[in-house]
Write a structure and sequence with these properties.
The protein is an alpha+beta fold. It has six helices and six strands, in the order E-H-E-H-H-H-H-E-E-H-E-E. It has two domains: 5-71; 76-175, H-NOX domain. It has a four-stranded antiparallel beta sheet, covered by helices on one side. A hairpin with an 8-residue loop joins strand 5 (154-160) and strand 6. The model has no long low-confidence stretch (mean pLDDT 91). Bound molecules: zinc ion. Zinc ion binds at residues 130, 136, 158, 161-163, 169.
Length: 176
């Protein structure tokens, strides 16, 4: 099996969040943990999944779970084309886009699928995605971020988790 990789643009969103919240010092601490200068991460390149988890661990160390979710929320805001689509489309279309192109452009492993339940609810399934709880939390944050861009109130709940023995991670998404 080929190595699990994530796109640099995703990592750039995470480190941008660190800089925004904890400034240059926060970023320096992160650089020490990951063993490279975050400014050297190129948006178009692919990087090992481990690097992504290390960056999320830096965020967790500094701010805990709440900040992991907020950090995940940055991801969609940074993808201009998706942010534009999010404003124009209904939530179902947004989720479909995020779970097809969005997922495949950021991860070279795992699988994401979604199912619309009704006009206010959907289910998202992530298979072979998470290797750390922080990845599940960041995922919740990115869906919350999509709702925020649409100025919708909503909630994302992880109903079952592959890290806890389920066959896949499943997220219930509800919006008003
Ligand atoms: Zn999970």
């Amino acid at each position: 099996m080929s190595e699990k990789k994530v796109r640099g643009s995703l990592l750039n969103s995470y480190t941008k969040y660190i800089k925004k919240k904890w400034g240059g010092d926060g970023l320096k601490e992160c650089a020490k943990v990951i063993g490279m200068n975050p400014d050297d991460i190129s948006a178009k390149e692919w990087y090992g999944l481990e690097l992504s988890i290390k960056i999320l661990e830096c965020v967790n160390e500094k701010g805990g779970q709440e900040h992991i979710e907020k950090c995940g929320g940055e991801v969609l805001q940074d993808i201009g084309a998706i942010a534009y689509l999010i404003k124009l489309s209904d939530m179902g279309t947004v989720l479909k886009r995020a779970t097809t192109q969005g997922y495949d452009s950021s991860f070279n492993f795992g699988k994401c699928s979604f199912q619309i339940i009704d006009k206010n609810n959907a289910l998202i399934k992530l298979e072979d995605h998470s290797e750390s709880e922080l990845m599940c939390l960041a995922w919740i944050g990115s869906i919350m971020g999509a709702m925020k861009l649409k100025k919708l109130n909503g909630k994302v709940t992880e109903k079952q988790c592959q890290l806890k023995g389920a066959g896949f991670c499943e997220f219930e998404v509800h919006w008003e």
